[in-house]
Amino acid sequence: MNLLDYAIKASRALRRAGLRYALVGGLACILMGVQRITEDADFIVEALSENDVERLVTELRNEGIPVSLREALGAFRDRGHFTVIVDRFRLDFKFQSSRLDAETLERAVEVEVPEGRIRIARLEELVVAKVATLGSLKDLEDALWLAIQYKHQIDWERVHHLLGTDLSEVIDSLLARIEAEYPESYAVRTKVRELRDKLHYLKKLKG
What we know:
The chain is of the alpha+beta class. The protein has two domains: 3-121, Beta Polymerase, domain 2; 125-206. Helices cover 58% and strands 16% of the residues. It is built from ten helices and six strands. The protein has helices at residues 3-16, 25-31, 50-62, 69-77, 99-107, 123-134, 137-149, 156-163, 167-181, 186-206; strands at residues 21-24, 40-45, 81-86, 89-95, 109-113, 116-120. The longest helix is centred in the C-terminal third of the chain and has 21 residues, at 186-206.
């Protein structure tokens, strides 16, 4: 089985548990066309009570996904996340804890893939999460790819609303910070330069 097979299993469990969810992160980006490799499937989950968590654990186990109820309940109480390892893959379930999480859940869309159905975050929330919550070079690369590829489909006013500022300014600031943290790394300098070129291209596209 591949990662998407396990993500579909998790999505079936979430639906049977009656919980709103959204696939985010690298796998969601791959489903949007980003060419990258990931061994993680990241979900945001809305759970309102410990009973919700217990149902989720039961349904995940019914799908053959081994889950610790203690860890899941602990994550819920901390408004954090719990991780399940299946084969070489990681399934990460993060309980809603922020406005961005809430809006991601509200606006997620269900898509059909050959393996089944799954709800994924919309473009705007995917891009914003990559820069506002994560912010690694790989995340910035994903965000820029999505922003350039879907320039005409993205609601840029919404992106600005979610970030509270301009996307380009945030990415530029993050690139400067990363470059300053690794001044001796040729690989980092090369990647930063590549992403700055993409950022400049995005700015030209947006006029």
